[in-house]
What we know:
Strand 6 (330-335) and strand 7 form a beta hairpin. This protein has helices spanning 8-33, 41-76, 93-151, 161-189, 202-219, 240-256, 288-291, 303-308, 315-325; strands spanning 198-201, 223-227, 235-238, 263-271, 274-281, 330-335, 339-347. The two termini are 61 Å apart. Helices cover 58% and strands 13% of the residues.
Amino acid sequence: MAFKNLKLRQVSLLISFAVAAISAIALCAEAMVDGWAFQTYMILIPIILLVTTFPIAHYLVDYFIYRRIKILYKLVSTEKGGKELKEGALQEEDDFLQAVEEEVRRYSTSKQSEIKALKRMETFRKEFIGNVSHELKTPIFNAQGYIETLLDGGVEDRGVNMKYLEKATRNLDRLANIVEDLIMLNQYEADATQLDIKPFDITDLTKQVMDEQELLASKKNIELVIKEDAGFQRKVFADRKHIHHVLSNLVNNSIKYGHENGLTKIGFYDVEDKLLIEVSDNGPGIASEHLARLFERFYRVDKARSRGHGGTGLGLSICKHIVEAHKEKIHVRSSLDIGTTFGFTLSTKKHLE
Ligand SMILES: Nc1ncnc2c1ncn2[C@@H]1O[C@H](COP(=O)(O)OP(=O)(O)OP(=O)(O)O)[C@@H](O)[C@H]1O
Ligand SMILES: [Mg+2]
């Protein structure tokens, strides 16, 4: 529409023309009644009205509409001082209105993405609370069940009392594990974990982890081996305790989810000033649709199977937080029926703050 983009001056002029035209029509009507006797004032009055209405209309439109737009602009403007305060911007109405339009658009886009992010967080929060309650509920109810049975007389029954006590303990251990994992995860997410970065020998740590997991591996007859790449850099700069946690979870996963008589290989590869550590298994593999979500909290490919192993689905998300706290990366490659490889990097140079 032609009137859509009128400037303040043009709007004022239009109003004054309208007033002048109306007065001219009124005067003509009067003249008609008086038998068309022309008088000078019939031209003079519309001209005077045209000239005097212009500044009044200009002032009123500016005062009631433009000023309010300016205030609204200030309210939505995210830049401190807003563009309208920048030199020269106000002088040009076009610039100003364009700036307002741009700012309002920017404001609305940013609000929309904020709303989307908040909605995502809300869903995430609900899911998280649901997951936590669900994970805590199972061991609590189980332990409660065993203890109640013991209290109801089972304690006298030598055939079941020790077994029930052990089962109750196992469930309480699981509960403690979940809570510990949640606390750890929370600390990582709040960036509250202080890393103690020191040089240490990664092969040493790997051998320690392999020793610790040996018993579990032997139950499934899984062989744990280090695939040594000649001349690789053994010294890494990282927090040993936390990297111990990462390696333990990756090796533990390869055993828990691996096939009987399987093989877990831990390999080291030099990549410039980093060392890539890979834990590979020849287990069942993970379908590609799960890979993107694998590092999410509580995400498990086969929930029943994982829970059966005492898993909470927090292990990999903790690993990710630990590796990222070191400003390094963790990734996964997997093919069904072939196996899975988890890899993460560590610095071989002392440049972490
Ligand atoms: N090597 C692997 N082979 C096949 N599936 C795996 C492997 N590693 C992890 N997964 C899948 O990824 C899921 C997430 O692993 P994650 O370590 O986060 O949790 P978890 O082992 O179930 O529990 P937690 O580590 O807390 O004891 C597992 O439940 C399992 O389904
Ligand atoms: Mg795990």
